[in-house]
Amino acid sequence: MNNEINPCDKTFTIGKWMPSDQKTLTEWLLRIMNKAENNDTPLLPAVQNFKDFIESDPKAYMFFNQMFDQVGRDKKLSPGGLPQVRDYHHMLSMINVIMTHAPDFDETGLVGCPFNALFDWSMATRGGWAGFINEKVNLHLKAILNEWGKFLRSADSAYVLSDDPKKGWFGKDALHAMPTFVEDFQCDPQLPHYGFHSWDDFFTRTLREGARPVAEPDNDAIIINACESAPYRVATDVQLRDKFWIKAQPYALQFMMDNDPLVSQFEGGTIYQAYLSALSYHRWHSPVSGRVVKTRMIEGTYYSESLYAGIDAAGPDRSQSYIAEIATRGLIFIEADNPDIGLMCVMAIGMAEVSTCEITAFEGQYVKKGDQLGMFHFGGSTHCLFFGPQVNIEFDLHGQVPGHHSHNIPVNAQIAKVGLRKG
Fold first, then answer.
1. b/e code 191-223 from CB counts within 10 Å (16+ = b)
2. Which residues are CB-contacts of 163 (< 8 A; sequence separation ≥ 6)?
3. The whole model's pTM is what?
4. Helices (H), 170-269
5. Closest alpha carbon to 386 in 277, 289, 256
6. What's the mean per-residue pLDDT of the chain?
7. Residue 411's Cα: distance from chain center in Å?
8. Does residue 342 contact residue 388 with C-beta atoms inside 8 Å?
9. What is the rounded CA–CA span in Å between residue 6 and residue 347?
């Protein structure tokens, strides 16, 4: 079985969701901490409900004390030397501040997942692992993220879509990082905020006609990239059940698909996983032409990471295969026109704040290669393509080796070619 993770270094800027410059992250944390210290307004309802739950549930109370106690000896600084969230009271006060903030741009990598920044170190502890995998905890986190999502969909969140040269999403630094933005995406630079009404409106932006042409649209042997994403992993001979929580993070089909009756058709098959970046396009497109057989949304975790990631800010990124079994995710099963492919599946996986997977395709719908299937709200995450054991597939990853150092392949570009059916 070929199911190993490629080696990587200690960078934690995968997808540019977190700053490469620790000074930027330190300044951001100190700013949020200062606002929390000087904020005397009551906790927002969803945050207050979370506090009441922590203080009334014995397991949650234990976990949310342990996770901060276990970070390190110095309760003011994290193991990376960053300002540290002191305890769950401090955590809740900072969440309360973040709930009315949208991420600024930063050329070293935005703090695109601010809640993740608060939990970075504590979620890697034993207490954090137990707490963030707890179903009741995740229900409260979902309520908080849903409320934050309402803010990000409101006009009040559009303030970050300014022309501030350093922090604005249409400032000098941001446009330098996104040099073809106007040519690629539907927008109007003459309108306020380029015509976007909110942060979420900006992040779920649509492509201009012809910006990402579909590779060989009439050739059913060519599989295209479902997302604007970078190759993370290719695994073959994938099993129904495996110890996905161990260091190698092998895939376990039965858990990834939540025991779906169709899962047995993929046993011994192939999985391709790729991740999205903060600056990417965030909608999903069909990698094949065919008919949608089934769609499913699966509730899951938001901040659980593999214990083998260690106390490391890169922990969530290093846990992408692990979270494929337990995080919030959406499944789209497609019976491809090409009989050499047959049934395949697209799985969108929510990661940290980026956990709203909206499926726009519907059962029975016929989709052409390149048609929209859905989108991530608030940015991007990671996704998988599943192929059965009969599929003779050869990947074309544009000269890259899957892993943390790969770069985006455009959506709708070729990523694989299928030969005659095995057997």
1. eebbebebbbbbbbbebeeebbebbeeeebebb
2. 170, 171
3. 0.88
4. 172-177, 181-184, 199-203, 253-256
5. 256
6. 85
7. 16
8. yes
9. 21
